Amino acid sequence: MEIIGGVARFQGDVFPQQRDLFQALARDGQKPKTLMISCADSRVVPELITQSGPGELFVCRNAGNIVPPFAMKNGGVSSAVEYAVVALGVSEIIICGHSDCGAMKAFFNPEALETMPNVKAWLSHAEPAHEVVRTCYGHLDHDEQVQAMVLENVAIQLVHLQNHPAVAAGLAAGKLSLHGWFFDIESGTIKALDSNGEFRDTNNPDDLPVAVPARKPRSVSRIVKAA
Amino acid sequence: MEIIGGVARFQGDVFPQQRDLFQALARDGQKPKTLMISCADSRVVPELITQSGPGELFVCRNAGNIVPPFAMKNGGVSSAVEYAVVALGVSEIIICGHSDCGAMKAFFNPEALETMPNVKAWLSHAEPAHEVVRTCYGHLDHDEQVQAMVLENVAIQLVHLQNHPAVAAGLAAGKLSLHGWFFDIESGTIKALDSNGEFRDTNNPDDLPVAVPARKPRSVSRIVKAA
Amino acid sequence: MEIIGGVARFQGDVFPQQRDLFQALARDGQKPKTLMISCADSRVVPELITQSGPGELFVCRNAGNIVPPFAMKNGGVSSAVEYAVVALGVSEIIICGHSDCGAMKAFFNPEALETMPNVKAWLSHAEPAHEVVRTCYGHLDHDEQVQAMVLENVAIQLVHLQNHPAVAAGLAAGKLSLHGWFFDIESGTIKALDSNGEFRDTNNPDDLPVAVPARKPRSVSRIVKAA
Amino acid sequence: MEIIGGVARFQGDVFPQQRDLFQALARDGQKPKTLMISCADSRVVPELITQSGPGELFVCRNAGNIVPPFAMKNGGVSSAVEYAVVALGVSEIIICGHSDCGAMKAFFNPEALETMPNVKAWLSHAEPAHEVVRTCYGHLDHDEQVQAMVLENVAIQLVHLQNHPAVAAGLAAGKLSLHGWFFDIESGTIKALDSNGEFRDTNNPDDLPVAVPARKPRSVSRIVKAA
Amino acid sequence: MEIIGGVARFQGDVFPQQRDLFQALARDGQKPKTLMISCADSRVVPELITQSGPGELFVCRNAGNIVPPFAMKNGGVSSAVEYAVVALGVSEIIICGHSDCGAMKAFFNPEALETMPNVKAWLSHAEPAHEVVRTCYGHLDHDEQVQAMVLENVAIQLVHLQNHPAVAAGLAAGKLSLHGWFFDIESGTIKALDSNGEFRDTNNPDDLPVAVPARKPRSVSRIVKAA
Amino acid sequence: MEIIGGVARFQGDVFPQQRDLFQALARDGQKPKTLMISCADSRVVPELITQSGPGELFVCRNAGNIVPPFAMKNGGVSSAVEYAVVALGVSEIIICGHSDCGAMKAFFNPEALETMPNVKAWLSHAEPAHEVVRTCYGHLDHDEQVQAMVLENVAIQLVHLQNHPAVAAGLAAGKLSLHGWFFDIESGTIKALDSNGEFRDTNNPDDLPVAVPARKPRSVSRIVKAA
Ligand SMILES: [Zn+2]
Ligand SMILES: [Zn+2]
Ligand SMILES: [Zn+2]
Ligand SMILES: [Zn+2]
Ligand SMILES: [Zn+2]
Ligand SMILES: [Zn+2]
User: Most buried of the four, A205, C11, D29, E12, by CB within 10 Å?
Assistant: First the structure.
């Protein structure tokens, strides 16, 4: 078990330098401001690409960075969302897709899923994205269709997020915003979905794309009064 | 959005030094040998405590490092397990619990779950561990009971892992081993469950505790022949 | 059974005058352009308030005009949506809420639901709307909160609609638009949700509010190419 | 959006003549005596074929006039049934099938369902009817088999109704009766299922067929006393 | 483990006398004509009360002799029913309730179920019977209500049986009949439900009560032809 | 109905000889020490092969002696397990497979399951056993593979048992043991799984194989204390 060598290095070399941080975190508990939902892929390390230290990022990872809709009681992702918003009070949720995603590529190679029935069922939560790709991106080549699938998947998971009660309320109360990211492994770049549905660069700090911004609370005037 | 500053540091400072690694990973795909299932807690960073780089660790994270049993079709954790074993061929699965786990502490403060119905439902997958604690650890003080809950939870999730077809077959074929870890935030130590049900230190590389070792294929002599 | 008198009147007086229409519909099949999802309430008659004749309106009615998200396989509403879009090719889906809705009022009188466990479970699909009302409309009086609940419920069901694959694809392909209506029983008025989240009058035919308009197909330029 | 013209006609021409009725209904609430469960088909308008006005008919419509059995918690149809019986106290439930039903015809053209997975799953609730047709009506021609399917489907949905607790209790208490109808689009006729399993004409008001009549409360003598 | 003594007695004393029968059954397979669904209660031994030998009775036993409706995919009871009718071709299904049934008595002592959440959920399949008892048998004393519960439960499980496709088809084809029994532990008597809803003695072989007799195949004349 | 003759023999000949036993059981209730979970197969009579009388064996029978994992709420087998352990306090649970099992043989003849969709879904709970057979026993002939399937199925159902909260607690508290049996119809022999994974003879009362023995309560020393 090679990995045990890394554990020894952590305990011997790394932890002693961060002891104060870890002890404070053990004493005071965690107070992360951000939930990141990303793929289980070994090449997409959330803390690395955001340069976050222990205590900064609440992280949910699964194959395909998927968020089943709230009605699926009992779900691990919905629970992570609920815990992050209600118990921890995070102010941002990021769904982070990535290039060369095995889960998304499986939609173009369905035979491979025959030996993975659970993965197949799980990916049904990305079926709306696949239907969009089938309907609207048929003229693209294979690689472009895969990338379209990754991007549309991020978009549909943001729809799913919005039917979680705590998220719906957080958005309406102006306390929460939702972000859709694309991480490109080869170039190290991150693009973010804006509210017009385009993925744009994230390197202008004054013009960061936000997929679903926090709203202002609606005014009472919205309420219709019978004549 | 503070986190975006970290993204800029990653792109400006970190990625250029790892460009070759990332480009190789983009070109050749991922080949991790280990699946780690850990908590979404921001203080438990799998790649940090195992000193793993990009491409080395397939990671599934959820509140409470839970593995629902296989029969729960459609599940994200089961899909990650299936993908890791069938598609990636990992040889080790680690379930990593940790001290001060908010999910496990919720069992001792059930009122807090009333506003988190999805978390409550999700934690039902740790109910067998809770029942063991209630039955057998009633004489311990509160903190000890919490810790017992964390450890028993790791143990029951290892039971759940074993009813996944790919895991059952991997164990029987001698190609897969299962590990149950406990990470202590305050001390940075990691203990591992051994096959006698004890959590022991991991710092003796010649005597690493393994919860469920790979088996030898059974001999035909096991098969009963009718008289 | 009083209603049987109405059947006799239909057969004796009404049908003979519409015989040609019915025979054409029997011969040629139905070709409605609109799916209306409305409440089962006896006071909200879709064909009456839209003055639609036989063959014009595909209608799904349930308590609370609810659309469970797509992931709930086996559902009657999702099936009606799928059939309307895929088999019939409707170009509009209307979700129509209404004043004095017993289903929505039940959220403010939860004891009444104790004897109706199925209704209680069904209404969980409107829980995100209820959470918004609880969080953002606490300063309103009871009647206003009920009305806010009706409106927010229409809004959340429109979110649910968008995760149906056929709807997601229809919107992206520019062939489908989604509408959110509010019918006031007392005044006979209908308001419609616009894309800014406001319910507005529908009596200006040149400025009809549309909740989710058909999109133009996205251009290829959306697709990110790795550097 | 053509339908908006109908809305204008309703508001301008129709509503003013029914204003008193609608205001009374808004003030006093609904008190319908009948729940009708019919198909979403645009050619089958429940209020038209029963000549019912606003406030008279509680209506649940879905593809195939299906009633999943009670055990399917969370269902829209079961909720409409429960609400109608428990909250509104209806005394009659009618399940109304019809000729040329697209949902029933789909059983004879299963390929068409491949692009409608939700409809396919939904129609599994009519599978018992289909199995009866396959087993007992194989000697009929295609059109007759379709009609047999429509009729057997009405019959099986009446079985499903009877396992709803409120329906079972209403029947046993003599307060509720169940009706199975067949509406023929071409001729405008309605046939009703009698308690011998035959669909008969409904034009003799002194001999109306009833599928499942209200029972008398059982006498205590039914109760077996141990010797 | 006391029971192992019984195993030794079976192998030493009983089996040698039935060796021919067991070897024939091993060689030729089973061909039972009857499926009995009875309670797991240790006092209700199906083979004993019907004096059936090995190979004669296909037996499904669970707490409360319950048959969930067919729509509950994945169920053990539905599978036993399906296997018995389709693979074995049984001609009779018996649902056998009994006096002093712990499962039925639990409806009158709901607190006891708090520590048995699975039992509680399982018994929801008998909820229609309970609702009938609550509505119609309130004037009876406790013991009579328990017995009414047992009898009504047998009746509702017979309703559930009828929505299984293979059962619906078997009845319609005249190849299957359904029986509802009540076994009284104290007196050893068995009563059977007749088609009028009464439980009657079974000791007149010329007048055996049958709950749901095999039907004759319906004649084509049932099929309505459009005018 | 031939079976009714057996009922008459039971009432006339058998019951009178056991009247005292039955009356005591009716008066005092059942107190079985053992739960047996066996196949519905008519050739496997639990009370016969263990020579148990009325009141001695709580029995759950289904096709394939399957125990779905606990997370499958609402299940009949899980309810029987829960009732047996919590309400009756049994000290042993036996899962009893058998030779020539139709359910297990179906894995090698999947076409036969096409007409039995419920059985097919039910057998998915034995899929881990099937995957082990496919992976590790490919070199065996057909009959041996069938037998391997039966044995591996017993083993995986024992895994499922251990995730039931009451079972997990009973084992940890030293009050419950789990047994895996194989009954050979042709020879009448019973083998039992030992804790090393081998099925061995049961005819040495001093060396009975036990699959999962009752444990001693864990000592507090297992609990890790943070440094
Ligand atoms: Zn990925
Ligand atoms: Zn944790
Ligand atoms: Zn309403
Ligand atoms: Zn129809
Ligand atoms: Zn019982
Ligand atoms: Zn068997």
Answer: C11
Q: E166 vs D68: CB contact, 8 Å cut-off? A: no
Q: Which two tokens stand for residue E136?
A: 């119609």
How many other C-beta atoms lie within 10 A of the C-beta of residue C177? Answer: 18
List of chains touching A (3+ CB pairs within 8 A)? B, C
- Provide the residue range defining the domain that includes D103: 32-214
Which residues, other chains included, contact A30 with Cβ-Cβ below 8 Å and sequence gap of 6+? Answer: A55, A58, A88, B41, B42, B43, B102
Which chain C residue has the Cα nearest residue A227? C187
Domain-embedded: residue D20: no
Residues in chain C closer than 8 A to A227 (CB atoms)? 184, 186-187, 189
- F185 alpha carbon, closest ligand: 6
Across the interface, which of C69, C132, C172 has its CB nearest the CB of A168? Answer: C132
Number of domains in chain E: 1
Predicted TM-score (pTM) of the model is: 0.94
Two structure tokens written together for B193? 């469950």
Closest CB from F76, F99, F179 relative to E76? F76
For chain C, say whether D219 makes contact (Cβ under 8 Å). Answer: no
Tell me which residue of D103, E196, E160 sits closest to E168, measured CA to CA.
E160
Report the DSSP pairing between strands F190-193 and F177-183: antiparallel
Residues 128-147 of A with CB under 8 A from C: 128-132, 134-136, 140, 144, 147
Contact criterion met (CB below 8 Å) for F77 and F125: no
pLDDT, tens digit (0-9, with 9 covering 90-100), for E120-151: 999 999 999 999 999 999 999 999 999 999 99
Query: pLDDT digits over F149-162, tens only?
Result: 999 999 999 999 99
Res C74: pLDDT: 65
Question: Could you read off the pLDDT of D153-198 as tens digits, one per residue?
Answer: 999 999 999 999 999 999 999 999 999 999 999 999 999 999 888 8
**Cβ neighbours of C203 in D, within 8 Å:** 8, 11
The answer to whether the Cβ–Cβ distance between A197 and C218 falls below 8 Å is: yes
pLDDT tens digit at each of 227 positions of chain C: 788 899 999 999 999 999 999 999 999 999 999 999 999 999 999 999 999 999 999 999 999 999 999 876 668 999 999 999 999 999 999 999 999 999 999 999 999 999 999 999 999 999 999 999 999 999 999 999 999 999 999 999 999 999 999 999 999 999 999 999 999 999 999 999 998 888 998 877 778 899 999 987 665 454 554 43
Contacts of B217 in chain F (CB under 8 A): 136
The reply to whether residue F60 touches residue E40, judged by beta carbons under 8 angstroms, is yes
What does the alpha-carbon distance between residue B40 and residue B33 come to, in Å, rounded to a whole number? 21
Interface pTM, i.e. ipTM: 0.94
**CA C187 to chain CA centroid, nearest Å:** 20
Alpha carbon of A217: minimum distance to chain C alpha carbons (Å): 7
Please give, rounded to a whole number of angstroms, the shortest distance from the CA of B193 to a CA of chain F: 10
Q: What is the CATH number of the domain that holds F166?
A: 3.40.1050.10
**Whether A136 and C217 lie within 8 Å, measured CB to CB:** yes
pLDDT tens track for A138-150: 999 999 999 999 9
Task: Tell me what pLDDT residue F14 has.
Answer: 96
C101: nearest CA partner in chain D: D29
Residue C118 exposure: Cα atoms within 13 Å on the Cβ side: 27
- Closest of A215, A160, A157 to residue A182, by C-alpha: A157
CA dist C123 and C66 (Å) reads 8
Average pLDDT over residues B198-210: 86
Residue among B162, B179, B199 at smallest CA distance from B91 = B179
Phi, psi dihedrals of residue C137, rounded to the nearest 5°: -120, 20
- Give SS3 for F33: coil
The nearest alpha carbon in chain D to C7 belongs to: D50
Which residue in chain A has the smallest CA separation from B45? A54
